[in-house]
Design goal:
The complex is a heterodimer.
Chain A: H1 20-36, E1 43-48, H2 55-58, E2 66-70, E3 76-78, E4 82-85, H3 97-103, H4 106-121, E5 128-133, H5 138-150, E6 157-161
Parallel strand pairs in A: 2-5, 5-6
Antiparallel strand pairs in A: 2-3, 3-4
Chain B: H1 19-36, E1 51-52, E2 56-57, E3 64-69, H2 73-79, H3 81-90, E4 97-102, E5 108-112, H4 116-132, E6 141-146, H5 152-164, E7 169-176
Parallel strand pairs in B: 1-7, 3-6, 6-7
Antiparallel strand pairs in B: 3-4, 4-5
Helix pairs in contact in B: 2-3, 4-5
Chain lengths: ~160, ~180
């Protein structure tokens, strides 16, 4: 009688997946997004201007419009009488207290809020005209826009005046 | 005298577990992906952005027509010589550039102060292309990236050109004044 051949069970294989290529891809993506992302993101100040030929804006407003003037030096005045912002100093370092002090125009914000309240009382939208001198620095215009945004006024008429 | 046979130490299998590192890597990746998708307007490095104390977050760049407004080259160079170098390199073919835009293929185009009509035509084309894509007219805005030292006449010129092109919503780009 022939001897029965003993069959050995197959050796247990360890199943492993190679994740190194996935980690490589992941690192590449990480480096890409690190390089592409700037953490200080740009902010926005939304303003709308009355479209040309807008008949509603040419009617006499129920509340006297507010006028903001910005001179070439960056001095901001409210209704031609009250100085609400000093001359623009480009040498100030951003982030310093002096720089922040120059950016904030609390007096202008207060006046704009009062105008908004008056307009809300008669259920109309406040009318604000911004008269900027041709050479006025853009930073000063942005300061005024920030004040308008703080006072919750999002519609403004813009005009350019000659430098004094 | 019998010598004591010293036993060899058992071989230890040293294997680092990379799973926490991969976890960290994925978390960082997700963080940067989320941040990167916040705003996708093209940013010209030659513009020294103004700072604003009160501004809101730019959540959706869809419908933004970006116009860069540059300061005078001497002012730009005095503040940041690298910005001036980049500006001269980018707009070499457009002398006297005061407004810069990027077309659909992200090629930079410069317009001088006498080319407000051409700028208006460019904005009109952009607006029409956006409307054809299904973007609502009220969502189409002029994204004004004005240099802090640019004169107001240039910014207002770009706004006028946009108004003539039928875009009356303006977004003033700025950086937060407080960190």
């Amino acid at each position: 009688m022939a001897r029965r051949k003993k069959i050995d069970p197959p050796a247990e294989e360890e199943i492993t997946s190679n994740i190194s290529s996935m980690i490589d891809c992941c690192f590449l993506l990480l480096i890409y997004f690190l390089a592409a992302t700037s953490l200080v993101s740009e902010k926005k100040l939304d303003i709308s201007i009355p479209p040309p030929g807008d008949t509603a804006s040419s009617k006499k407003p129920k509340v006297d419009p507010g006028n903001i003037y910005v001179t070439k030096a960056g001095v901001v005045t409210w209704n031609e009488g009250l100085t609400v912002g000093e001359a623009y100093d480009p040498s100030l370092e951003p982030g310093t207290p002096a720089y922040l002090q120059q950016r904030r125009m609390e007096s202008l914000v207060e006046n704009l809020k009062m105008l908004k309240e008056q307009a809300d009382a008669v259920e109309t939208t406040p009318v604000v005209m911004l008269h900027g001198a041709a050479g006025a620095p853009h930073q000063r215009i942005v300061d005024v826009m920030a004040a308008l945004s703080e006072a919750d006024i999002h519609s403004v008429g813009l005009s350019t005046t000659a430098d004094e | 005298m019998a010598k004591k046979k010293s036993r060899e130490p058992e071989e230890v299998n040293c294997e680092g577990d990379p799973s926490p590192m991969i976890d960290c890597c994925f978390l960082l990746l997700m963080f940067f992906i989320v941040n990167a998708s916040q705003i996708t307007v093209s940013k010209d490095p030659s513009v020294n952005m103004p700072h604003a104390v009160s501004a809101s977050e730019m959540k959706d760049a869809n419908g933004c027509i970006v116009v860069n407004v540059f300061a005078d080259p001497d002012v730009m160079g005095a503040k940041n010589p690298k910005a001036l170098e980049k500006f001269n390199q980018t707009y070499a073919a457009y002398p006297g550039t005061v407004w810069g835009v990027a077309d659909a293929s992200q090629n930079s185009i410069g317009y001088n102060s006498g080319q407000s009509q051409q700028l208006s035509e460019f904005i009109t084309k952009q607006r029409e292309a956006m409307e054809a894509k299904g973007i609502k007219p009220e969502m189409i805005r002029l994204y004004l990236r004005g240099d802090a030292d640019a004169p107001w006449s240039r910014s207002s010129g770009a706004i006028r050109a946009a108004a003539a092109a039928g875009v009356s919503n303006i977004v003033f780009g700025s950086l937060p004044a407080e960190n």
